[in-house]
Amino acid sequence: MSTKAVSVTAPPKVLKKTSASSVWVRAWRSRVSYIMLLPMFIPFFVFIIVPVFQSANVSFKDYSAVSTDESKYIGFDNYTELLSLQVREQTPLYDEESGERMYQCGRRKRPESEVAAYEAEEGKQCTVAFVSSRDLLSEGYREWKTYDLFGNNYVIGARDPRFWTAIVNTLYFVAYTVVGKLILGLLVALILRKQSRLNYFLRMVFFLPSVTASIAVTVIWGWIFRGQSYGLLNNMLIENGIVSQPISFLNDADWTMPILVIMAIWGGFGYNMILFLAGLQNINQELYEVAAIDGAGPWASFRRITWPLLRPTTLYVVITSIIGGFQVFDSIYILYANSEGLGGPLDSGLTVVPYLYDKGFRLFQMGYASAIAWVLFIVIFFFTLINLRVGRVNEAY
Amino acid sequence: MINRSRNTILLERTGLIFALFVAIFTLIPYYWMLLGAFKTVPELNRIPPTFIVEKPTLNSFYDAKGELPPDHTRGLFQIYPGTEGGFFRYLFNSMFVSASITVASLMIAALAGFVLAKHKFPGRNFFFLMFVASMMIPWQVTIIPNFLNVSDFGWIDSYWALLIPALPKAFALFFLRQYMLSLPDEMLEAGRLDGASEFRIFRSLVLPLVGPALVSMGLFIWLNEWNNLVWPLIVIRSEELRTLPLIMTTMVDPFSGATKQGVAMAAALLTSIPTLILFIAFQKQFIQGIAVTSVKG
User: Fold this and answer.
1) Do A274 and B115 touch (CB under 8 A)?
2) How far apart (Å, rounded) are the C-alpha atoms in residues A323 and A326?
3) Which residues of A touch B4 (CB under 8 A)?
4) Of A334, A358, A187, which is closest to residue A264 (Cα–Cα)?
5) Is the Cβ pair B229, A206 closer than 8 Å?
6) Cβ of B25 under 8 Å from any chain A Cβ?
7) Among A252, A393, B197, B263, which is most buried by a count of CB atoms within 10 Å?
8) Which residues of chain B neighbour A330 with C-beta distances below 8 Å?
9) Residue A104 Cα, gap to closest chain B Cα (Å)
10) Exposure string for A117-144, b = 16+ CB within 10 A, e = fewer
11) Tens digits of per-residue pLDDT, B102-136?
């Protein structure tokens, strides 16, 4: 029994002697290794490896609840539908008969000759009317945004304007949360750098949001921001005379992103603090002593020692925050999902992953949702590569 | 010299005051939750709000005497009459699912990690690279085919759907394998010479030595599973199988009254207590887990 076990497992030393034997012989001798690998490998193969290929496959199909042939390949149609953008300059509208320039007065369009009378009568300003964006954009495109650039008006059309809204919202979310979490995390790490009871306690407090159930915490925030006067924030604002009527934070499109950003910073800066504290520990204290002897103040020693030596940590923090930011979902779903979708008021909280969920699991456009997933993957992969690169630099440090 | 040290002291004081402000900002939601969970309905409605509960009550959890207004909800443990056990059932579901996934995924990852760290066999590097490469794939890519597959397996709306697809955790394998690399080969060799099988060596020699890594990784997995919203949202339909995150999605309704706030806070409290207890018991492992994974990963 005992000798069998030894020979079967082919420990390293034995293996070297028999390395001349063929791969299959060595594989057979290592069968115990493969058996021990299987419990992990089988579910890994079924639920990760295979789905990756299936996902790529489905993203080239018209796989949805309403499609007539789910197995039909449509090439890159899902991707072009997602990513197509068109920019057109808006041209002024002229009256077909008289050739007069048209103006938008209230809800109606009027020719130039009537504008002065209308403005005098109603006391309202008329604006130049443009050819409707439907006529400017190619077929299949809808107006996403209009821009006024150097006096020229442009209309941006997209085949899927909601996707571009989701992209812009995601970028906004990522930009603010990355910067906010970075600054706050670094500040508290610098403040709590020294070992003391109070500092240890405060570190635990700041780390708390990163480990307590984020789902539960979102519910609490939801009640803090709620629109009625008994919501904590409204209550405080009314109490201090800042507003007289409660603000309905959760139903106001302008408030959606600020609320999501505040929640994300609150929930994530403690994690960054821990990473920065670990980074600070690796900095040689003698550097500071030498700097102090040379007469460097706190700002100088931060700028010349701490900041450059923390660079690897900072980059890691930034990249992981970016990747995490692109994947935001839970807080948006909990605060804003309803029967009509999960983007919040006027899609103001629609980011990429909620949009994927909306397409895939509410509208059951699985092929299209898979294409969204791959676009997201490419973005995340780009940042992962930077991270790997940076990781290599760190080792050389 | 004196001047500079004065500046430094001033800076430290300002920093501390700033940190205390941030601490208040951090703790407000928790405090608001505690208040809300134990307030009576009239107190929940009061403007300005009270910051010390005047008459603490458990009505938001269980309203034995029917003191809450009849047109409002009752206590948290009473509002799910359609489910046997009510809220207890949801607590159990979350506990059962997170704990099972944590234990099972740790075991298979540790076993595979051991093989990849300490055995030499054809294809070892290939397997290892495949596991590591898979860590770059975000869950959004695999979630749609996984949903379709799980539907084909007939697992929709069952514990299987919650448990089995969550088992393979490549990051756990990677982390444990890195940890196991440092185990001395001589010790394993001694075990082999004593006639122990590889499974025996794994169980009796390797597992006890990687205990700290298992705890760190286990906490990490448990926390993620406890918070997992998307997957149960997709695969669970019936009320009895809902987990706590699914219950939480029903707790923010912009138009519901203040009574529901008490119940929502009670639910939030019960959802966060298990993780709080774990955090307080294992602070070091939590933090080491983060520091180590980030430095190596």
Assistant:
1) no
2) 5
3) 295, 297
4) A334
5) no
6) yes
7) B263
8) 227, 229-230, 245
9) 38
10) ebeeeeeeebeebbeebeebbeeebebb
11) 999 999 999 999 999 999 999 999 999 999 999 99
Burial A188-218 (b: 16+ CB within 10 A, else e): bbbbbeeeeeebeebbbbbbbbbbbbbbbbb
Q: Please count the residue pairs, one from chain A and one from chain B, whose beta carbons lie less than 8 angstroms apart.
A: 302
DSSP line for A47-91: IIIHHHHHHHHHTTB--STT-S-TT-B-TTHHHHHHH-EEEEEPP
Is B23 at the interface with chain A, CB within 8 A? yes
Structure tokens at B44: 């929940």
DSSP labels, A348-376: TT--HHHHHHIIIIIS--HHHHHHHHHHH
Chain A hits for B22, CB-CB cut-off 8 Å, are: 184, 188, 206
Check: CB of residue A362 under 8 Å from CB of residue A58.
Answer: no
| Identity of the residue in A30, A187, A270 whose CB atom sits nearest the CB atom of B122 | A30
Considering only the beta carbons, identify the residue of A30, A215, A278 that sits closest to B248: A215
CA distance A386 to chain B (A): 12
Amino acid at B157: D
Q: What is the spatial distance between Cα A126 and Cα A109, in angstroms, rounded to a whole number?
A: 9
Sign of CA dihedral A256, A261, A262, A263: positive
Calculate the alpha carbon distances from B21 to A188, A213, A222, B5, B15 in Å: 11, 23, 22, 24, 10
| CA distance linking residue B229 with residue A309, whole number of Å | 38
Task: From first to last of the 397 residues of chain A, give the pLDDT tens digit.
Answer: 344 444 444 445 444 444 557 888 888 888 999 999 999 999 999 999 999 999 999 999 988 877 777 778 888 999 999 999 888 888 888 887 777 888 888 778 888 888 888 888 877 788 888 888 788 888 888 888 888 888 788 889 999 999 999 999 999 999 999 999 999 999 999 999 988 999 999 999 999 998 888 889 999 999 888 877 777 888 888 888 888 888 888 888 899 999 999 999 999 999 999 999 989 988 888 888 888 888 888 888 888 899 999 988 899 899 989 999 999 999 999 998 877 778 888 889 999 999 999 999 998 999 999 999 999 999 999 988 887 776 655 444 3
Q: What is the CA A18 to chain-centroid distance, rounded? A: 52
Which positions in chain B touch A9 (Cβ < 8 Å)?
Answer: 119, 192, 197-198
Contact with chain A for residue B1, Cβ under 8 A? no
* Bridge partners, residue A341, by sequence: A338
